[in-house]
Automatic annotation (TrEMBL):
Molecular-function GO terms, alphabetical: phosphorelay response regulator activity; transcription cis-regulatory region binding
Pfam families the record matches: Response_reg, Trans_reg_C
Domain of life per record: Bacteria
Organism per entry: Candidatus Limousia pullorum
Ranges for domain Response regulatory: 3-119
Job of this protein: May play the central regulatory role in sporulation. It may be an element of the effector pathway responsible for the activation of sporulation genes in response to nutritional stress. Spo0A may act in concert with spo0H (a sigma factor) to control the expression of some genes that are critical to the sporulation process.
GO cellular component entries: cytosol; protein-DNA complex
Name of the protein in its database record: Stage 0 sporulation protein A homolog
Keywords: DNA-binding, Phosphoprotein, Transcription, Transcription regulation, Two-component regulatory system
Xref: PROSITE patterns: OMPR_PHOB, RESPONSE_REGULATORY
Length: 233
């Protein structure tokens, strides 16, 4: 069963989310605050495919829960729920390891589509890991192992989220090629993605902080002005 953790302190919104996800075939575990979400995560031994976290909650915020879950689990998909006025919080959530965000108010179809898209990525990564999938891509001093979903810079292991790994896989498959932001968005998030294109830029910024010697002066993930990015290694 596709298992999802929903953390939202507003009862009406949480009930709305839970009902629609159960209708879509998900096994939903709900929590009304950040503390409860982390407790539920431990009670279920981290056996979740996706987590949906409201940003603003009393006590432990959704951002703190996101950071904690990402530290515990590099493969879980994380979606943040935010109000329209929380623009910086959206970016912060992505920088802390979230894969996507949905702005309130949202429709059941939009949320379900985002969850479905993220779940497919998580399931595909798991299938590659569990099956005899041994392909490894090498580019300069970097190695990307598609079976165990590991990424190395020389002898150093770099932890990547699912989204970051897929972006790197796309870069490795197209070394030196200028990739349009829209191409990256469609390849990683899917053609049906209804979010904003800037999510690509936030993830690129996060990747640069992990792979570059000088993130402010990148030499591996290079900006192609007016278009997107290319991988040089």
């Amino acid at each position: 069963m596709k298992k999802i953790l929903v953390c939202e302190d507003e009862t009406a919104i949480r009930d709305f989310v839970v009902i629609n996800l159960r209708r879509a075939g998900y096994d939903v575990v709900e929590a009304d605050c950040g503390e409860a979400a982390l407790k539920k995560y431990e009670e279920h031994n981290g056996d979740f495919d996706v987590a949906i976290l409201d940003i603003m909650m009393p006590g432990i915020s959704g951002l703190d829960v996101c950071k904690e879950l990402r530290n515990k689990n590099g493969t879980i998909g994380i979606i943040m729920l935010s109000a329209r006025t929380q623009e910086m919080d959206k970016v912060t959530g992505l920088m802390l390891g979230a894969d996507d965000y949905v702005t309130k108010p949202f429709s059941p179809s939009e949320l379900t589509a985002r969850v479905d898209s993220l779940y497919r990525r998580v399931a595909l990564a798991r299938a590659h890991s569990e099956n005899n999938f041994k392909e490894e891509l090498t580019c300069g001093i970097f190695k990307l192992n598609l079976r165990n979903r590991s990424f190395m810079k020389g002898n150093k292991v770099i932890e990547l989220t699912q989204v970051e790994f897929q972006i790197m896989e796309y870069f490795f498959s197209n070394p030196g090629v200028a990739l349009d932001r829209t191409d990256i968005l469609n390849h990683v998030w899917g053609n049906a993605y209804v979010g904003e294109e800037k999510i690509v830029d936030v993830n690129i910024r996060r990747l640069r902080m992990k792979v570059e010697d000088e993130p402010s002066n990148p030499k591996y993930i290079v900006t192609v002005w007016g278009m997107g990015y290319k991988w040089e290694a």
